[in-house]
């Protein structure tokens, strides 16, 4: 899932985005049986001229899925030529979309899937509380969210979402998240040689996965990560 925003950012974004998707995707794709991934953009004036914060990256109105990691990259390249970049940076709609898909698997009584959402963004959130609300709701679902921050923006809010301080997120109604489902990594630190992108993004995923399956007594032998 990609954020399209700011024309002078595109060259850097293409480089960092390719690195993040290829490296993380090469690991995660082996846990997906059909290698088909939903790909969304947010922060853009879409093919129909409407500013959207969750649109199908491939430009197909009734289908967001693409074939493999190469399909994600191809859809992104196409979107750059067909979508006008626009702000602000809103995470709520795309998190809710991913949560809806994860929730649908449960509504069909299918507990064999666990979902991973990768968000790549250069912007500072303008819907922090709405994002918190979405994450608190999603904490009950088979879903983890990996966020990559690109560029030199102030990503303090992303650290809040990550909840590495041990305090779980709280919604606007006072509900506390069931578990931590977010991992945030600034690409600037990756390129400064401080951390490995794949290692940093995926290091909390096994623990997040276990905090979901263990209380529900879900056996991992037949589980798929999608």
Automatic annotation (TrEMBL):
Taxonomically, the superkingdom here is Eukaryota
Which SUPFAM superfamilies does this chain map to?
A: vWA-like
Q: Which GO terms describe its biological process?
A: cellular response to calcium ion
Domain named Copine C-terminal is located at 18-220
In alphabetical order, the GO MF annotations are:
calcium-dependent phospholipid binding
In the UniProt record, which is one GO cellular component term? plasma membrane
Annotated InterPro entries: Copine, Copine_C, vWFA_dom_sf
Q: Which Pfam families match?
A: Copine (PF07002)
Q: What is this protein called?
A: Copine C-terminal domain-containing protein
């Amino acid at each position: 899932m990609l954020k399209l925003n700011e024309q002078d950012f595109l060259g850097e974004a293409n480089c960092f985005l390719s690195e993040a998707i290829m490296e993380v995707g090469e690991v995660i794709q082996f846990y997906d049986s059909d290698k088909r991934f939903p790909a969304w953009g947010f922060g853009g004036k879409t093919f129909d001229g409407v500013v959207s914060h969750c649109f199908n990256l491939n430009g197909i109105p009734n289908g967001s899925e693409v074939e493999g990691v190469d399909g994600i990259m191809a859809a992104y390249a196409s979107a750059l030529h067909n979508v006008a970049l626009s702000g602000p940076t809103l995470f709520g709609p795309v998190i809710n979309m991913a949560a809806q898909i994860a929730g649908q698997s449960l509504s069909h009584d299918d507990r064999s899937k666990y979902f991973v959402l990768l968000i790549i963004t250069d912007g500072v959130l303008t819907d922090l509380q709405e994002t918190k609300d979405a994450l608190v709701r999603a904490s009950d679902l088979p879903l983890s969210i990996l966020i990559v921050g690109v560029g030199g923006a102030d990503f303090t809010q992303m650290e809040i979402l990550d909840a590495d301080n041990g305090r779980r997120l709280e919604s606007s109604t006072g509900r506390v998240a069931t578990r931590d489902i977010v991992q945030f990594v600034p690409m600037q630190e990756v390129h400064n040689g401080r951390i490995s992108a794949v290692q940093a993004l995926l290091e909390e995923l096994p623990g997040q996965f276990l905090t979901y399956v263990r209380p529900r007594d879900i056996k991992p032998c037949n589980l798929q990560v999608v």
